[in-house]
Design a protein that fits this description.
CATH class of the largest domain in chain A: Alpha Beta
Oligomer: homodimer
CATH topology of the largest domain in chain A: BirA Bifunctional Protein, domain 2
Helix content of chain A: 25-40%
CATH superfamily of the largest domain in chain A: Bira Bifunctional Protein, Domain 2
Distance between the termini of chain A: 58 Å
Largest sheet of chain A: 8 strands, mixed
CATH architecture of the largest domain in chain A: 2-Layer Sandwich
Number of helices of chain A: 17
């Protein structure tokens, strides 16, 4: 037994107890006749006191030799502190040390092990095992564990069965790029790592498993955008004999359970919005509804005058920014530059100040009179004191640009409060989306998603208009989950593959095992998958996932701590019947 | 809502209720004016009745057209059965059907969906989604879920934090063969899939995580013996500031918790045995202690006569087989043939019948008199009616052969009762084992295992005699878990690598990140990993793991259901800068 108590445990009621503690030296202060050491473990910090009048001289000497991050074990007595620290749970006491044993020494760490460290991202990743000693990272990992435990308990109580599906599966060209694994026992052949357990969970429904879930790693070999990881974790779920409403019920229940157990929040029934409505009102299929600034379409009130830019645009659309009528010319120019950046790509922006006195002042006053501008205010819901910002151009692109601006302003104005939670279902997604490069339709969700019965007749004539039984769960402007009711008959699945440009042979070759399974009594089924990394981060009040992953990879897919990937021996490649062919 | 109740739910108290059920047609019987259908889902079977006098003619016709494994939805009324079936929970009632909807038809399945199926292993694996519909497989998967939930709850309650470690890591030549994954973004470089999260869990200890666990897939690219899988699941655990006794306590507690919650069994404190003792008493480091037949060493009582075979042997060792003195010559010859098979490799076997009347009859009566044989009986603990079986030769090899015979007889005699559970700790494993082929020592557990302090002085002189702080948890003759107290200082770790034949450079290159981490205050730590597949199977009363894995691979590492691994497109290989090189 290295310790009788943890470093977060002792309280005033423990006074006079003899205790043994072990942990890391957070810091020490030498005041001549006394030395104080903050001893840290996972559970907290306890102050140790070494006092010349009460502590053995040899132990005093040991204490003075301690460096930061030394691992020590001490035995001593709990005493009441003279000056209490109300900011820490153990702040009423300290441990008067009798014996000290150095369990391990430490080099000076390359950055300070403090909440606000002096270490940059790169050095913290290289020494991630030191970074995790810091509260923000450690607490994120503990938080993630709590979330997954709550998820598992909730689903298990509803008769969901966690089933492990294989990691060494088959490569399919649909979807993102696979990571592949050469097979030594089957030379020239390869496994793929799963992008998701999609087909396996559907097979489990065919197998009668009825309610399945799995918290599982998935893999996508894509160029890494910020905050994307090549391996990521899903809460993958599937149910049989259900309709869309049943799925929304269960997973709304799960999300509500998490908000309640983790944040003691009771949330109303989640609002729902169709994909079309979300795009129209927020320019975005995952709107953050914690704040307003809803889109106001201005075509009817802005295209009747001589302003050519608006007249020639497919869409003129604006938002009313609260408390921004007083922005200076410089502030507004900065916003205009912001939307003109290549990442956003707007060609310009019109503004209209709604002065507190009820008058308007716009950048296009020579084309529009006060009455016109009053109509703009009405369409965007602008109040006196607001600033209306207006973009125009092709409808989809313009909405996307204005959505980016809305989110940016939401951040700048502090409207996106991390600990306010606004879940939302977005439903009725399109089944297909046009891929300009490939000149073909792609499945917007995936090729197993069922079309809405009432839209199937449009598959030949207007495939882009067919809606799917597909839904996303959005939390605070982030998609945290998405799913669909699946196709469960072979004919519809074959029709779907046809519309995705597969020949019957290609479909059979790649998805034959699923289509064959559908011949043997597949039940109606559907499901949903949460992105656990993001879900946890959002619930934790963060938007970046990196601190919720113990050992993340950088943007080149490298683990800089262990230095992977790396070259391997030729003999290893030979055994696998492959060779490196650098071009 | 496709159903108001599951097929396992309705009871006599539900009589007269209008219900909706959905599921698969297990079987149907057409008695002319009545049709009965057994409707099955995950939760059970409910009998449906279609009766010409009470059911619509069109529905009767539909019912008669149903085939096995059709997926249907029915609505009807719960009625009391005329002839009740006490063998099923719903056996008191049946549902008189009013409406029937075929949700999906089914081809005739390639094997019967019954507990005792007519399908062989190969066809069941190819159609695993049908195999899982059978109770034995379905229940194994549900059982596995229950085990993992109990494990997670138990460990979480003890403050263990589940942390996900990466799957795309670095290849190291130590241990088994890695599966590797080419990196597209780092051409010519490869990730490896983890054989275990060993180094990461140790880094989490350095990181101060204190108590870690993870239920995690691991990968070994080894030639597959029966009942081995290339991907398998571990319950991986690690603790800081502990000694061996603490680890044994916690995981004995976990195992006891499983036996209690799953089998309502209270088990005594687990017995412990050193590796040496286990080898001496059972010829095996994972002895099945549910039955006796302990080894009796006979050198002292068998090497004083003219029987050259025994006199020249390093070890003469026997077991007493209960109730086998009456074996015929033919039965004994069969046993002799069994130990002489190449898999066992004994050159012969001596026997001695302990007759009920107290006399002895052996195959070597011309060398040994009754008094000698009485001494053999004493040494092996043989009673009248037992058959003593004796092997001789080099000590280790002979013990291993006799152990195989003991287990075989345990099986044949029904002494290995599947629902009797006898856990055992085997401790004090050797640190190193000699590898004849490589002419070097290997780490018996792994290179991070600490030697016993009192044996370190033997590292140079007699490395094979150094014992490790290593332990296995054995259940019913199977190793279900194993672990060790780790080395936590850089010097001992370097010493260990030296004795394993690594140069300092090789050690730094392969394990530098761990040894570097040890410079920054590594705490004393240790852990254990359970093999979840085997643990679950044993707890389920089985010795084969295959039905506890949803989608297992065959002995060539193939998933015959999805037909993986498979060839992939050259463009995919080109992107990864690799090519196939068949020799």
């Amino acid at each position: 037994m290295y310790r009788s108590h943890s470093c977060g445990e002792l309280r005033i009621a423990d006074t006079n107890k003899d205790v043994i503690l072990a942990g890391w030296v957070q810091k020490s202060r030498d005041k001549g006749f006394m030395v104080w050491v903050d001893l840290r473990d996972r559970y907290g910090i306890t102050q140790l006191i070494f006092d010349e009048s009460r502590t053995d001289a040899a132990v005093m000497q040991q204490a003075r030799a301690l460096g930061r991050e030394f691992v020590i074990q001490v035995s001593g007595t709990v005493i009441e502190r003279e000056s209490k620290n109300n900011n820490m749970p153990t702040g009423d006491i300290e441990v008067l040390v009798k014996e000290l044993k150095v369990l391990n020494s430490s080099e000076v760490p390359p950055f300070t092990i403090e909440d606000d460290t002096d270490g940059g991202e790169d050095i913290r990743m290289k020494y991630r095992y030191l970074d995790i000693r810091r509260n923000p990272v450690k607490n994120s990992l503990l938080f993630r564990h709590k979330v997954t435990q709550e998820v598992r308990n909730y689903l298990s109580n509803l008769d969901f069965c966690e089933v492990e599906t294989p990691y060494l599966i088959k490569s399919t060209p649909e979807g993102a790029r696979d990571f592949i694994v050469p097979s030594r026992m089957n030379p020239g052949q390869f496994y793929a790592l799963p992008q998701s357990p999609q087909t396996f969970k559907q097979l489990l429904m065919v197998a009668g498993m009825d309610r399945y879930f799995q918290i599982v790693k998935c893999f996508r070999d894509e160029d890494l955008r910020a905050d994307r990881q090549p391996e990521f974790t899903q809460i993958d779920c599937e149910m049989s004999f259900i309709e869309q409403e049943d799925i929304l019920d269960v997973f709304e229940g799960l999300t509500r359970h998490l908000l309640k157990t983790i944040h003691q929040l009771e949330v109303e029934k989640f609002p729902r919005m169709t994909f079309d409505e979300a795009m129209r009102r927020y320019g975005n299929d995952k709107p953050d509804i914690r704040f307003g600034m809803e889109f106001g379409e201005l075509n009817a009130v802005a295209q009747h005058k001589d302003f050519g830019v608006f007249n020639s645009a497919e869409l003129v659309v604006g938002i009313a920014v609260p408390q921004a009528a007083g922005y200076t010319r410089k502030q507004i120019d900065e916003l205009i530059d912001w939307v003109k950046r290549p990442q956003i790509g707007a060609s310009g922006m019109v503004y209209c100040k709604c002065e507190p006195d009820g008058t308007f002042k716009s950048s296009v006053d020579k084309f529009y009179d006060q009455e016109d501008l009053a109509n703009w205010a009405k369409a965007t819901g602008a109040q006196p004191g607001n600033l209306i910002l207006i973009l125009s151009g092709p409808a989809y692109k313009t909405r996307t640009q204005l959505s980016a601006l809305r989110m940016e302003l939401g951040n700048r104005l502090g409207l996106r409060k991390p600990h306010e939670f606004a879940p939302l279902w977005v439903i009725d997604f399109p089944l297909l989306e046009w891929d300009e490069d490939a000149a073909r339709y792609h499945a917007m969700h995936h090729p197993f998603t069922s079309p809405k019965q009432e839209d199937i007749h449009l598959l030949d004539s207007e495939p882009g208009k067919v809606r799917a039984n597909a839904y996303d769960l959005v939390l605070n402007g982030n998609e945290i989950g998405g799913g669909s009711i699946r196709i469960h008959d072979k004919e519809t699945q074959a029709l779907m593959f046809k519309h995705l440009g597969f020949t019957a042979e290609e479909a059979q070759e790649q998805f034959g095992f699923l289509m064959n399974a559908f011949q043997y009594g597949a039940p109606p089924h559907g499901g949903l998958a949460f992105g656990l990394d993001r879900l946890t981060a959002i619930l934790g009040g963060q938007e970046t996932i990196r601190d919720y992953i113990a050992f993340p990879k950088n943007n080149s897919g490298r683990d800089v701590m262990i230095d992977a990937p790396s070259a391997i021996a030729k003999s290893q490649l030979d055994e696998l019947s492959i060779g490196v062919q650098l071009s």
